[in-house]
UniProtKB/TrEMBL annotation:
Annotated transmembrane regions: 9-30, 66-88, 95-119, 125-147, 229-250
PANTHER family: PUTRESCINE TRANSPORT SYSTEM PERMEASE PROTEIN POTI (PTHR43848:SF2)
Upper lineage: Bacteria, Bacillati, Bacillota, Clostridia, Lachnospirales
Alphabetical UniProt keywords: Cell membrane, Membrane, Transmembrane, Transmembrane helix, Transport
Family: Belongs to the binding-protein-dependent transport system permease family. CysTW subfamily.
Subcellular location(s) of the protein: Cell membrane
Cellular component GO terms held in the UniProt record: plasma membrane
Topology with respect to the bilayer: Multi-pass membrane protein
Name under which the protein is recorded: ABC transporter permease subunit
Amino acid sequence: MLKKCASRIYMVLIFAFLYLPIIVLIALSFNDSRSKVKWGGFTLRWYTGCFQDEKIMTAFVTTLQVTFLSAIISTLIGTLAALGIAAMKKRHQTIYLGATNIPLLNADIVTGISMMLLFVKFIDLGFVTVLLAHITFSIPYVILNVLPKMKQTNRSTYEAALDLGATPLYAFYKVTWPEIRPGVFSGFMMAVTMSLDDFSITYFTKGAGVNTLSTMLYTELRKGIKPELYALSTILFFAVLLILLAGNVYPGKKRVAAK
């Protein structure tokens, strides 16, 4: 009994540690006072204000552009790479998987500095370099999400579709794609999440005049964070939460319908 009670208290403390800062952030986004310790009443003016602040909106739009462009491109490249690795022999798979894991284990600051040194040799730092950097570090996450699904597919079914006259593209779409789709979606969501809040790599690869939310928050921290940023962060949190809920509920409904 005591062990069960202690485990529950432990879980409550863990979840409180994880979500209490987010709850405080949400509460501050509705606080009419700029003070972080004094409640000044309920208000929505920070939500309207964040959309009227040109600097915040510019950083927000840049963040969304980089996030979704890099996620889409890295998902396409990562999925094709996973297909290629799955078709290799075991020895070659081990080599390429080892190479895929290196960027994940490498420190972000090392990756950011190395990319900066590479980019300045050829092009000026700016939006394009940030996008290329985000695509580069997102690809391994996609590969590692798609590859397990590729290993679960039945190669014989794909080959049978080819023997029955289907083209390789049609056979892939009808046979392989339904099997790996959850992995592709997971890889896409992982790429979106990693790109959305990245700071280190973005900071070293961005040029003058290019700011994402993470880099703008870093510069604003010295002067004091605006309450409008609390509101924008709250909107982003609930947007990501809704996407995750939709991604988990919709496949469940499909499985129930199939049964």
